[in-house]
Design goal:
The complex is a heterodimer.
Chain A (H helix, E strand, L loop, with lengths): L2 E2 L6 H6 L6 E2 L3 E6 L5 H14 L4 E5 L4 H9 L6 H5 L3 E5 L15 E3 L5 H18 L4 E5 L2 H6 L2 H17 L3 E7 L5 H9 L3 E5 L3 E5 L5 E9 L2 E9 L1
Parallel strand pairs in A: 3-8, 3-9, 4-5, 4-7, 5-6, 7-8
Antiparallel strand pairs in A: 1-2, 9-10, 10-11, 11-12
Helix pairs in contact in A: 5-7
Chain B lengths: L3 E2 L6 H4 L13 E2 L3 E6 L5 H14 L4 E5 L4 H10 L5 H5 L3 E5 L12 E3 L5 H18 L3 E6 L2 H5 L3 H17 L2 E8 L5 H10 L2 E5 L3 E6 L6 E8 L2 E7 L1
Parallel strand pairs in B: 3-8, 3-9, 4-5, 4-7, 5-6, 7-8
Antiparallel strand pairs in B: 1-2, 9-10, 10-11, 11-12
The chains are: A alpha/beta, B alpha/beta.
């Protein structure tokens, strides 16, 4: 199985140790855990590292608008503008419109509405085609399911997610989806975990990776000014 | 680099100096973020908001203040007792108040509007207008919601989560830095998780200890604090 570099210090080494295959390419991974443990930071690093390797990225932001997203990444010294200019990064922003501020769509930026999964799916289709034309090896980040669950019925979000994952995986993407544990019902949480290939759990102290064929690795982590950095870990 | 604004709370900015630099950076509250301040009743959450507001006003940052528990004239007099006079700032349109409390209301004016916790739509309309008018002439401002608890008690919690998200997106888009207070344990567990996920920074106060559970660019911090006649006084890190 092919792998992608996550760019998260310590994670690629951990997943390649003990005959592991590294982070699996063209799979979907659910990154979940309580609030404020670093889920967004994880996805920033994953997307940024790919862009740095000239792997395009379709980034769907639903918790923070583009202005906040750019600022949050800049706090770590990760600058997006160059990749936007190179047309490597395509952003779908489904939250800025909630502020009432007018946002102009561009070749690499599409605005959507948080309570309109149908519109979001249309934008995902456009974005996927755009990114796919650049390379059939690309990354996709969905950060996160938390706000969609606040604005839409749970089954609707799940239906959207299934379609999204199918479409992106068919196109060849390696997909991350973030989710704050406890925001949806336990039944919906079980479905979320079952429709992805891998899960990554962050709890504030430990990061645990589990693949669909039960390859598991775990390590301590810290959030530094370089983002998430893993400490000594082990394969379970 | 993360820009921080002075909190106005004695000792708080010293506690929040980032440790991993050469000592040049200043502590405070990260600019253009949302801070959740939570804890039980009567532990100084409102006092924290008063000092935060006054600090902003005295450095030419306007403030949009939504109050639900205390009526505004109580706040006004409490702040006078702390030696903080709001009069000139209200006259200069620097302070805009939306009073959604049950108490007796002051006369409505450009800078003082009445609302009700039972009418979240009205609150959102007035708050949005306030943000628009403040941000027209100011690149930055402070926002206070004290507290979200009373609004949650009178409405469907998920509806209020949508209203809160809308408020947060507007404040951030307009360059504001806001504090939202909440009485711990008074809402559904799910709602409390959502509130925490929406905030950038989380501070817990319990009457004795202030814990910074999460803050942009900072590890966890903990310190004793006291409620005095001059407001909260936060001690050294433990």
């Amino acid at each position: 199985m092919s792998m992608v570099e996550t760019g998260i210090p310590g994670l690629d080494e951990l997943l390649s140790s003990n005959d592991g295959d590294g982070f699996p390419e063209n799979t979907a991974t659910l990154v979940y855990g309580p609030p404020k443990v670093g889920k967004s930071i994880f996805s920033y690093q994953f997307a940024y590292h790919g862009l740095d390797l000239k792997e395009p990225c379709l980034y769907i932001t639903t918790d923070d608008g583009i202005k906040q997203l750019t600022q949050n990444m800049m706090d770590f010294g990760w600058f997006l503008q160059g990749f936007i200019d190179e047309e490597l990064l395509y952003i779908i922003d489904s939250i800025s419109s909630l502020s009432g501020v007018r946002v102009e769509n561009t070749a690499t930026y599409a605005s959507s509405k948080i309570n309109d999964p149908t519109d979001l799916m249309v934008k995902v289709g456009l974005g996927t085609r755009f990114v796919f034309k650049k390379s059939n090896e690309f990354r996709s980040v969905f950060d996160s399911l938390t706000t969609p669950f606040i604005f839409n019925p749970e089954p609707m979000v799940v239906r959207f997610l299934k379609t999204y994952l199918r479409r992106l995986k068919e196109a060849g993407a390696t997909v991350l989806v973030n989710y704050t544990e406890g925001v949806a019902s336990p039944g919906t949480e079980r479905i979320l975990k079952s429709i992805v290939d891998n899960v990554i759990m962050l709890d504030g102290s430990y990061i645990t990776f589990k693949s669909s064929y039960d390859f598991m690795g775990t390590a301590k982590y810290d959030i530094t000014d370089q983002g998430i950095v893993l400490g000594e870990g082990e394969i379970l | 680099m993360i820009v921080r604004i002075t909190s106005g709370i004695t000792g708080f900015d010293e506690l929040t100096v980032p440790s991993d630099d050469l000592g040049f950076a200043l502590g405070g509250i990260p600019e253009n973020t949302i801070t959740l301040l939570y804890g039980p009743v009567g532990v100084g959450k409102s006092l924290f908001c008063h000092s935060f507001t006054y600090q902003g006003l005295s450095t030419d940052e306007p403030c949009l203040y939504l109050t639900t528990d205390q009526n505004f004239s109580t706040i006004y007099h409490n702040m006078e007792d702390l030696g903080l006079s709001l009069q000139e700032y209200m006259e200069g349109n620097m302070l805009q108040v939306i009073d959604a409390s049950n108490g007796e209301k002051m006369e409505e004016s450009l800078t003082h509007q009445a609302s009700s916790v039972k009418n979240p739509t009205d609150i959102l309309v007035k708050v949005s207008r306030g943000i628009n008018s403040i941000s027209q002439n100011n690149p930055r401002f402070r926002g206070v919601v004290d507290s979200i608890t009373a609004i949650l008690e009178s409405n469907d919690e998920m509806l209020i989560m949508r209203v809160l998200k809308s408020y947060i997106v507007r404040v951030k888009e307009a360059g504001g830095t806001a504090i939202i207070t909440h009485t711990q344990g008074s809402a559904d567990l799910r709602t409390e998780i959502i509130i925490k996920s929406m905030a950038d920074n989380i501070i817990m106060v319990d009457g004795k200890t202030l814990v910074i559970e999460s803050m942009k660019g900072l590890g966890q911090k903990k310190a004793h604090y006291e409620i005095t006649e001059e407001g909260l006084i936060v001690g050294k890190e433990e």
